[in-house]
């Protein structure tokens, strides 16, 4: 066999399920930022210290007998406290034994949910711009991702959503509050979705609500609060976002028993159980943390960042929640957003994420995403650079 023939033979024999997936844009931008000493507002993680109370709890329990496997579904005390918080926040009673699952971050929860229910040939609707883990999870499951663009203002376009539904549609993935745009669904949005899905009882909902406790201009409406949808909805959330400990990788799923029973089968052979120390620490910390204070802290940071750059040539887009601010740079450059984001790092010392990478067709409206989950000093320094452009 000739060398070229052998290369093709090996390629097709050992082709992965994700042959077209390339290096994440987050890694690309962070690496470029490091090379040029730029202020990194690209990746979505805080650069300020954790709550001192959480650190004290962690230091105190580190020598306790808490380092072996927890039960597969999660630490019972943590499950109970999540259930209590869900009842307090949304008025939904959740059975800790049959309707909850602790996951290794929300990303693992999303992967588990999709790979439990999406089968070969099934279609899953994904609303663009979308978080980059959804499509690969569908592809690994053997399904077909159907990408549906939001409106230009990043609100849901229900005409497009309804037109995209087919007899093969098994799931719709809805991220609310929305990354990367910071928009939040309204009561009317949910009512419209309910009307559409009433015609399609075969469709499951995967509600990615990892930013549920980071909202500003209007309260977060959770799928936990929607009686017409809750029995067909899997809700994913994340302590990494809510408690700004992204490296701990602790999230959770809430779903009705008939769905959770099946997801636990996949979960047990994917990770079995989640980091025991983090579960114990978070369980105790939930006795003292106030999630409303988390929202207030991030609103102050959002307001600070917006005020700092409001007189720049960047146009601020609405930010209802999350810790991301989207801006338009039409007044500055005609370059595509990927090239402009790289130029911003190399020439101006600030890293962002171009919004086009969150679209299947790379829709480019000259938008960038900045993460404001940073110290005030970091935001001030970044704004000073942005204001000079």
TrEMBL record:
Query: Which segments does the entry list as coiled coil?
Result: none
Reported cofactor(s): pyridoxal 5'-phosphate
**GO CC, alphabetical:** cytoplasm
Q: Which domain of life is it from?
A: Bacteria
* A Pfam family matched in the record: Aminotran_1_2
Q: Locate the Aminotransferase class I/classII large domain: which residues?
A: 39-384
Question: Which keywords label this protein?
Answer: Aminotransferase, Membrane, Pyridoxal phosphate, Transferase, Transmembrane, Transmembrane helix
The Gene Ontology terms for molecular function here are:
kynurenine-oxoglutarate transaminase activity; pyridoxal phosphate binding
CDD domains listed in its UniProt record: AAT_like
Query: Which family does the similarity line name?
Result: Belongs to the class-I pyridoxal-phosphate-dependent aminotransferase family.
What name does the UniProt record give this protein? Methionine aminotransferase
Q: Which organism is it from?
A: Flavobacterium cucumis
């Amino acid at each position: 066999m000739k060398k070229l023939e052998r290369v093709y033979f090996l390629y097709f024999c050992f082709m992965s399920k994700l042959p077209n997936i390339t290096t994440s844009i987050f890694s690309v931008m962070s690496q470029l930022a490091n090379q040029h000493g730029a202020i990194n507002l690209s990746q979505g993680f805080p650069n300020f210290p954790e709550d001192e109370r959480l650190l004290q709890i962690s230091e105190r329990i580190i020598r306790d007998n808490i380092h072996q496997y927890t039960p597969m579904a999660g630490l019972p005390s943590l499950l109970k406290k999540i259930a209590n918080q869900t009842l307090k926040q949304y008025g939904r009673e959740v059975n800790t034994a049959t309707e909850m699952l602790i996951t290794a971050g929300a990303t693992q929860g999303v992967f588990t949910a999709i790979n439990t229910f999406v089968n070969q040939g099934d279609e899953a609707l994904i609303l663009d711009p979308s978080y980059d883990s959804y499509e690969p999870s569908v592809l690994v499951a053997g399904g077909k991702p159907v990408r549906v663009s939001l409106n230009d203002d990043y609100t849901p376009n229900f005409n497009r959503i309804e037109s995209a539904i087919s007899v093969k549609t098994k799931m719709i993935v809805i991220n609310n509050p929305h990354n990367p745009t910071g928009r939040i669904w309204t009561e009317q949005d949910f009512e419209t979705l309910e009307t559409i899905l009433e015609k399609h009882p075969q469709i499951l909902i995967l509600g990615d609500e990892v930013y549920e406790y980071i909202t500003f201009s209007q309260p977060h409406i959770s799928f936990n609060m929607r009686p017409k949808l809750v029995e067909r909805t899997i809700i994913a959330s994340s302590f990494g976002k809510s408690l700004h400990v992204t490296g701990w990788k602790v999230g959770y799923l809430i779903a009705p028993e008939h769905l959770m029973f099946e997801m636990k089968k996949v979960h047990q052979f994917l990770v079995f159980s989640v980091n025991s120390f983090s579960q114990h620490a978070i369980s105790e910390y939930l006795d003292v943390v106030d999630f409303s204070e988390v929202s207030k802290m991030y609103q102050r940071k959002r307001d600070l960042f917006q005020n700092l750059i409001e007189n720049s040539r960047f146009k601020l887009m609405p930010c209802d929640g999350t810790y991301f601010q989207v801006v338009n740079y039409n007044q500055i450059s005609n370059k595509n957003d990927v090239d402009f984001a790289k130029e911003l790092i190399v020439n101006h010392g600030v890293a962002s994420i171009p919004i086009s990478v969150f679209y299947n067709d790379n829709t480019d409206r000259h938008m960038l995403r900045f993460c404001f989950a940073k110290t005030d000093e970091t935001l001030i320094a970044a704004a000073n650079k942005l204001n000079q452009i």
